C-alpha cells in the first residue's frame, strides 16, 4: 500500500475515533444532553401551539402550530450542536486530555472535523427527536426532505464551529454559557422562530436580515412547509459563507495552539 | 542516527519568563537517557516542546531525522509521551482511554484492542480495564499513562517523572519494564528527582538548570568526578580512641558508628587493613549519601564548576 493511502486511512481512523468518542459522550449523559430539548419543545408545542396558538390563528397561511415546528426543530439543532462542542472541547482542555490528541499525529483539520461532526450528530439526534414530538401534535406534510436535511446539517455544522471557537477562548465554565445566553438565545428568538418577519415594521425587518438564524429558519421552513420570507438560494449561500469563515478561523486557532498550548 | 537532536532551543512564556535559554542536546538511538534538574529548571518545558504540547520560541528539534517544523506528523508518530501531570478524561473506562489513544494515532480498532490488552496486562491493569479512570489510584494512573504512551509503539519514549508517587515495589517493576523496553530497542528519555533511579536505569544524563544544560555526560563518567567517597561504618563494640589513619578522615557519629571520608586514591581494602591493625572490627558499611545526589547538588549549586572543573 502506498504511503499516501496509508496516511488517509490513518486520518480516517482518527476521525472515526473522535466522532465515536463524542457520540458516546452525549449518549452516556443523554438525560443532560438530549432530553432537555425534547422537554422544552414539548412545552412549546403544548403552550404556544395548543393553548395560545388556537387564538393566534394562522401565520403565513398555516396553523400557528405548524408554523412554529421548523423554528423549534432548528432551535434544538442550534443549541445542541453548539453545546456539545463547547462543553466537550472545553472539558478536554480543562482536564488536559486534549493533550492526548495534541501529541498524536492527527492534523488540525481532522481534529476539528471530528469535534464538529460530534456536534452535528447531537444536533441531528435532537432535531429528529423534536420532529418526532411535533408529529404527536400535528400532521406534517413535508415539502422537501432534502432541503430540510441539508439545512439541518449545515446549521449544525455552523453552530458546532461556533461552539468550538467559544471553547478555545473559554477560560472557565462560566465562559461557555455566556455566548449561548447572550447571543444564541436572542438570535434564535429574533430569527423568526415564532413569527413571520412580515409582521415587523420595515426597520426591524431590515435589522432581522443580518441575523443568520433567520435564513436558516426560513430555509428550513421552506423545506417543511414550502413557504419562506426570504429566497432559499440566499439562505444556503449565507450559511455556507459563515461555515467557511468559521472553519478557517477555527483552523487558524488550532494551528497556533490558542487556548491549548502555552 | 540520533533519536533526538535539539539545537539552540529557547522558550519564552507569555509574560516574558524565559524557561529555556538555548538548549543543545543530542540523544543517540537506543540510549536510556536521564534529564535531571531542580524544580523549575525547564525539564517539562523541554519535553513539552519536543512532544508538541508547548510552542517553542526558537531553535530546532529533530526526532529520528524528522524536523518538527517541517514534518510534525512524522515526529509525533515516533514519540510516546508520559507527562508529569495526569491528563485523563476521568469519566472514561481504562480500556477506552488506551483504545482512543490508539485511534488518534490511526491504529485500526481491531489492532488497537490487541495492543491495549497487551500493554494493560504488562502494566498489571488488565483487571481494571472496565473501571472508570477516577477510581484508579495515583500509582495505577501513572502506569496507565505508560500503557497509553506505548500503544502506537513509539521509537522514542519520553517519561516526565514516571515514578513520582509510586510505591517501592511498583517502582522496581516499572524499572524492569523500562529496562526490557530499552533492551528491545526503544530509546528512552526520563526525568526524575530520584537519582538512584537515574543511576540504576540510565547510561547518559544531562543536567538542566535555569533553562540551560549544565552538564551532559555518561553516568559512569559523572561518578568518576567524585574525588572523595564517604562511608558510614557500624562497628563491633565501642572504640575509645580514634586512630590516625593516613589518607582517611575519621569522625565519630556515635560510640559504635564511624564516618570515613576517603580520597579516591585509596581503596576500601586499604581502609580495612588500617582498621584491622588498630583492632577495629566492622559489622557493616554503607555509602553516606547517594553519590549521584551529592554530585547533583554540587552541580546545581555551581560548586563543582567553581572547583575548577575537576573532571
Ligand atoms: N505555562 C507557563 N507559563 C509561564 N511560565 C511557565 C509555564 N510553565 C512553566 N513555566 C515556568 O517555566 C519554568 C520551567 O518550568 P518546568 O515545568 O519546565 O520545570 P521542571 O524542570 O519541569 O520542574 P519540575 O521538576 O518542578 O517539574 C518554571 O519557572 C515555571 O514557573
Ligand atoms: Mg516538570
Automatic annotation (TrEMBL), chain A:
It comes from the Bacteria. This is Transport permease protein. NCBIfam families: PRK15066.1. Belongs to the ABC-2 integral membrane protein family. Its main location: membrane. The lineage of its organism: Bacteria, Pseudomonadati, Pseudomonadota, Gammaproteobacteria, Chromatiales. It is found in: Cell inner membrane; Membrane. Pfam families: ABC2_membrane (PF01061). GO terms for molecular function: ABC-type transporter activity. It comes from Imhoffiella purpurea. GO terms for cellular component: ATP-binding cassette (ABC) transporter complex. It is a multi-pass membrane protein. The chain crosses the membrane at residues 29-52, 64-90, 110-137, 149-170, 176-196, 230-251. Keywords: Cell membrane, Membrane, Transmembrane, Transmembrane helix, Transport. Residues 28-257 form the ABC transmembrane type-2 domain. InterPro entries: ABC-2_transport_permease (IPR052522), ABC2_TM (IPR013525), ABC2_TM_bact-type (IPR047817), ABC_2_transport (IPR000412).
Automatic annotation (TrEMBL), chain B:
SUPFAM superfamilies: P-loop containing nucleoside triphosphate hydrolases. This is ABC-type multidrug transport system, ATPase component. Residues 4-235 form the ABC transporter domain. Gene3D superfamilies: P-loop containing nucleotide triphosphate hydrolases. PROSITE patterns: ABC_TRANSPORTER_1, ABC_TRANSPORTER_2. Keywords: ATP-binding, Nucleotide-binding, Transport. Pfam families: ABC_tran.
